[in-house]
Request: fold
Amino acid sequence: MIKPVRRRWLIPLVAAIACVGWAATNASIPVWGRWVLTGIFLAGTTGLGIGVLVGPAARRLAGESRPPTEDELRQMTVSERVEAVNAARHTLIQAATGLVVIGGVVFTGLSLWFTAQSLDASLQAQRTAEQSQITDRYTKAVEQLGSAKLDVRLGGLYALERLAQDSTRDHQTVYDVLAAFVHEHDPSVKVRDDDLPLRPATDVQAALTILGRRDTRQDKQGQGHYLKGIRAQGADLRRANLSKADLTEANLNGADLAEARLTNARLVDVRLSPAFLNGADLSGADMRSANLTGADLRTANLRGADLRRADMRGADLRGLPADVVKQIRAQARFDKDTRF
Reply:
C-alpha cells in the first residue's frame, strides 16, 4: 500500500518544517540567516499545503475516500495508465509552478521588508548624525558670542541665524539666545541713558537685524523674541519683522523702523522720540504711554492700536485715515506742532 509510505514521510517532513520555523525566531542568528530560514519555512509550508490540496483534498473533492489499491491499478488499461501518468505530470507541473510563484512572492516580500528595515536604520543613523552636527554647530556658535573679538562674535551671530534656518526644532532657541545677547550687551548697564551712544554696537546691530528678518511662521504659538527694556538708540530696523515682539520700556530713540512690521507688538512705555516709523504696520499694537514725540508716522498703519496716554506731540501723522486721526485725538496727547 502506498498510503502508509506517504504517512511515514509526512511526520518527519512536518517536524523538519517546524524546526526551521522555530530556528527563524532565534534572535541569536544573524538577520540574513533568519531571513533565509523564514523563506525556507514558508516555502516548505506552501509545498506541504499544495501536496495536501493535490492529494487527499483533491480525492475527497472527487468523491474518493482512499487512494486506489495495487489490484485496482493492475486492472487499468494501458491507455488509462498513460492518461493517469499524464494527469499526474500535469498536476505536478501546476503544483511546481504555483510553488515557484508563491515562493517568488514570499522572497520578494521578505526582500522588500529587509530593505525597508535597512533603510530605516540608515535614516535613523543619518538623523542622529545630523542632530549631533547641529548640536556641535550650536555649541560652537554660542562660544563665539563670548569672544573678545568683534569678527568672531559676528561669525557666531550669523552661524546661529543659519542654524535657525536649517533646524526648525532649534528656531525658537536660537532667537531667544540672540535676544539675550542684545540684553547682555546693553550699554545702559555701564552708562546712564543720557550718555548712551547714538548707534548700537556693530554686533548688537547685527543681532537686531537677524531678529528682524526671522521667519515668523516658525515661531511657537504665544512666544516671540523678547526684547523688553533694550537700549538700542538709532538702531537700523527698516522693514524688520517684529510682530508680537515685547519691546516694553525699550529705548529706541532715533531708531529707523520705516516699513517695519510691529503688528500686535507690545510697545508700552517705549521711547521712540524721535523715531522713523513711516509706513510701519502698527496695527493691534499696545502703545500705551509710548513716547512718540517728534516721531515720523506718515502713512503708518495704526488701526486697532491702543494709543491711550501716548505722547505724540510734534509727531508727523500726515497721510493717516480720518478714523485713525479721530482715535489719536481721543486717546493720545498732541499739541499744535503735531501734523495731521
